[in-house]
Amino acid sequence: MRLTIIGCSGSFPGPDSPASCYLLEAEGFRLLLDLGSGAVGALQRYVGLYDIDAVCLSHLHADHCLDLCAYYVARSFHPGGPRPPIPVYGPAGTASRMARAYGLAEPPGMTEAFEFATLAPGTRQIGPFRVTTAHVNHPVETFGFRLEHGGRSIAYSADTGESAALVGLARGADLLLCEASLLDGPDLPADLHLTARQAAQHAARAGAGRLMLTHLVPWNDRARTLEEASGVPFAGPVSLAASGQAIDLG
Ligand SMILES: [Zn+2]
Prior knowledge:
The protein is α/β, with parallel strands linked by helices. Helix content is 22%, strand content 28%. It is built from seven helices and 14 strands. The strands form two sheets. The chain has a seven-stranded mixed β-sheet with strand order 6-5-4-3-2-1-14. Helix 6 (196-206) runs parallel beside helix 7 (222-230). The longest helix is centred in the last third of the chain and has 11 residues, at 196-206. The chain is globular and about 55 Å long. Bound molecules: zinc ion. Zinc ion (ZN) binds at residues 59, 61, 138, 159.
């Protein structure tokens, strides 16, 4: 299982990264986790535009889903003809939200380009991946993920405040890809995002093998993000995600 960070910028694209998008590959199958603002551009550096087999959207905030509009154009209007539809898993209402975002009438909206499937908490097979989803703690319906393949596992927080469900998804995972949108400070908003320190606490509680901090907001100091996470007792390595970084989990 191979993870490539396409976009790891939090809440809006940054100068060095699109918003959230992660490419998971195994057995030649390519799954995108989130397709946030700007991601379709950078994606083309790492994979053929038409080599994606499925997309999972954690939630319908623009920085996690809006480049489905760009991908819709790329798949629908190629001079060689429309590309066959691929599955898009997302929260309830994804198909309508995406149609509205692009200004498409329904039907058909984007249903000729994408086969929309509604996520629910539980486990399903997507290509070679065993995918477990659970609701995390964010103002709109949001799913955290655990992806397993060949005895390896990756958990992805999506956007969340403190969440016991995230600890469950990340239990014993080889890698926790966890948002760290906030730095420590007074009057932090509840039930919205995690601080870097809270991300590390979740990784420690889950017994994850390693922690990669993501959803890094451009206005935050990256060194301080890493420093705050590193202050938490956690056995594994802690790093910051960067666009273009690839991790082979075997
Ligand atoms: Zn969000």
